[in-house]
Amino acid sequence: MVWQIAAAGVGLAIANKIRGESVADHHDVVEQTHDALVDEVPESANLYADHLSHRDEIPNPEGEVDGLTHIPDVVVKSGFANSLIIEVETADSLQNEPAAAVLQMQNFSVSGYRRVLVVPDGKGDAEELETFVEEYDNQIPGKYYVATPDEVSEFL
Q1: What is the dihedral of CA 11, 15, 17, 20, to 10 degrees?
Q2: What is the DSSP string of 81-102?
Q3: CA-to-CA dists, residue 3 to 61, 115, 140, angstroms
Q4: What values do phi and psi take at 148, rounded to 5?
Q5: In CATH, what is the architecture of 2-155?
Q6: Does residue 56 register a pLDDT over 50?
Q7: How many other C-beta atoms lie within 10 A of the C-beta of residue 21?
Q8: Band of the pLDDT at 4, cuts 50, 70, 90?
Q9: Which secondary-structure segment (H or E) carries 33?
Q10: How far apart are CA 62 and CA 60, in angstroms?
Q11: Confidence (pTM)
Q12: Where would I find the H helices in 39-112?
């Protein structure tokens, strides 16, 4: 029900209208999100990412968080910084499959983890995010955050 935008991303929608449309692929955005976190997580933390089987050194998050019925795109398990469950969505997925995004965000509400919805920083993504939040925010209980891949480390 409550969503917050990263401090650096407050002007996300406005700035993205100027920059142009995004044509980001979901798997590419997962990889960008992972790569933005890899140097920022504490040394004692574990970083997992789905959809990156082409990079053998990255463990998959399946089964890493108890009680989930869906696999998060990215998970950070940390004892010192905030632990994160991250769902990546693009303009296409928010427009064409909003119920799937809502279901995943509902499922990812787990004690001890911050939920973060990551979207690319293109104009179309910002517009679809705004529409998604207006239409579906009331179906997602609790607090969650919204960020671009470059901003996600602010939630650690």
Answers
A1: -140
A2: S-EEEEEE--HHHHHH-HHHHH
A3: 24, 10, 9
A4: -95, 170
A5: 3-Layer(aba) Sandwich (3.40)
A6: yes
A7: 15
A8: low
A9: helix 26-38
A10: 6
A11: 0.84
A12: 91-96, 98-107
